[in-house]
Specification:
Length: about 270
């Protein structure tokens, strides 16, 4: 039984897939979780072929209330000891808040927040027994930004996830378990197309957009070092510093310059 497994949600594409590749290159065996079974099969094969590690998948939709139990039970049944848990799955809702159904908002919260808490609760118990483990929560620079006119819940949920990650460190750091909140800015993936906000992404200045590979590399390195917070790239480190230090009224004046479309209303 291999004791060096990393489980990555939303792992078949984008940042999640690049995180999986980075960990595989470091010798970790991989468990990918997402909804599309064909994508999972292709991604696992690509990782196994390139890095000669074990790569398996669990097809599951985190919007489903039973998904978390299924993921945990399946990993236990297959004999996998998850040393690293990467909570990466996510998406956005471009529809104005008042037009979105309550069911859609609940699913959104389930994927970006409730499933993160639930998966962590299940896997951290095993980490406590072993007195070792690493957790990554892929958050966002949106956690530090002003409220947005689109994707109204996205920023608040990411702020909540950062605080949750902090609380995990306070609770379990003494046992050798660390949690790292990774907060990327605009990243070139299929996230924006899938979330119907690609036009907004196209308007973002090129110097503010970075590759998923770079974000994954910086995030993984921070997690393995046990850092509490990682804001990848110097550009976004500076931006987050300015967001914390600059008066709120001035940031509001610059909103659409920093993130075109994010603060526009209908």
């Amino acid at each position: 039984m291999d004791k060096n497994y990393a489980l990555i949600t939303g792992g078949s594409s984008g940042i999640g897939f690049e995180i999986a590749k980075d960990l595989a290159e470091r010798g970790y065996s991989i468990i990918l979780v997402s909804r599309n079974e064909q994508n999972l099969q292709d991604s696992c094969k690509a990782i196994a072929d390139e890095f000669s590690v074990s790569a398996d998948y669990i097809s599951s939709d985190l919007a489903n209330k039973e998904a978390v139990k299924h993921i945990y039970q399946t990993s236990k049944e297959r004999g996998y000891t998850v040393e690293i848990l990467v909570n990466n799955a996510g998406y956005g809702i471009a529809t104005p808040f008042h037009e979105t159904s309550l069911e859609d908002e609940e699913k959104f919260i389930r994927v970006l927040a409730t499933s993160v808490i639930s998966l962590t609760k299940l896997f951290v118990r095993d980490m406590v027994d072993r007195e070792s483990g690493k957790i990554m929560i892929v958050s966002s620079v949106a956690a530090f930004a002003p409220p947005s006119a689109i994707q109204v819940l996205y920023g608040p949920i990411k702020t909540f996830m950062n605080r949750f990650s902090d609380a995990l460190n306070s609770s379990y750091n003494r046992l050798g378990i660390t949690s790292t909140a990774v907060c990327p800015g605009f990243t070139v993936t299929n996230f924006h197309t899938a979330s119907n906000v690609q036009k907004m992404m196209d308007d973002v200045p090129s110097f503010m957009k970075f590759s998923a590979e770079r974000i994954a590399k910086e995030g993984v390195e921070a997690m393995l070092k046990g850092k509490v917070l990682c804001v990848p790239t110097k550009t976004y480190k500076l931006l987050v510093f300015l967001l914390k230090a600059t008066p709120y009224w001035f940031i509001r004046l610059l909103e659409n310059t920093l993130a075109p479309g994010r603060y526009k209303t209908k």
